[in-house]
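Aim 2 progress. For LysR family transcriptional regulator, the working sequence is reproduced below.
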Amino acid sequence: MHAFNDLYAERMDELELRQLRCLVAIVDEGTFTDAAIALGVSQAAVSRTLAGLERTLGVRLLRRTSRAVTPTATGSRVVAQARRVLADVADLVQEATSGHTRLRIGYAWSAVGRHTVAFQRRWTAAHPGTDLHLVRVNTASAGLGEGACDLAVLRRPLEDRRFDTAIVGLERRLCAMAADDPPARRRSVRLADLTGRVLLVDRRTGTTTPELWPADSRPAVEETHDVDDWLTVIAAGRGIGVTAESTANQYPRHGIVYRPVRDAEPVAVRLAWWRDDPHPALQAVLELLSELYRTG
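Predicted structure tokens for this construct:
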């Protein structure tokens, strides 16, 4: 087993992207001559590069005749993998070099609520050179820790010391319930009205836990793992949810109503970023979001 691993590692070290690029070019162009033209090298260089790849892998990849060059069975599989590798490398280079021209903002359940459209439009008008993408990732860091975004909108504190955060606004806390639930007839509810109910909670990203209630009057808890599941259970009348106002803005659902919880503290909306590698657009995002929440 160790010998196999050593051989595998040795071949990985010898394998070069230019070899994979050469193989794909030969297959795509159909001849070594045309591949050389496409790659901007000599035909002899193409032949040497392919021979080096076959030697490294220990297999024959192409079958040559006087009329055509075709992949062997193994070669067809290697070509397919080579295309994926080259595409992944291209994505990696794009990811590493486009930091100033692309801005990805992650969020777990809802972006910035009723400010989402205004934020997108005002950003595009003010920063046409930086493409904005909102990315939904249901993790504690809304995709920041996973590399899925550059900044993240959060509605709960982030304990990970790799990140810094700043509060950009506050949102009311609302109760989501089935439209035929008796409290739905009221304009607002109190926490005491929800005691004894089943509270649906997403422990990874949710904004509300039973600790919002006094210790002797907390609701029962049922876990959920996605906003769509949360809405489905609530619409069926099997539980209630308490969430930030932004959820109601982003996820109106037939059969569900949202009512303010008038004695619950508001939810702080935070922007998070990598402490040692903040995106160049961080300050502009902070200022725009803070203004939207302050004036909206």
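The CA atoms of residues 201 and 223 lie 5 Å apart. This observation will guide construct design in the next reporting period.
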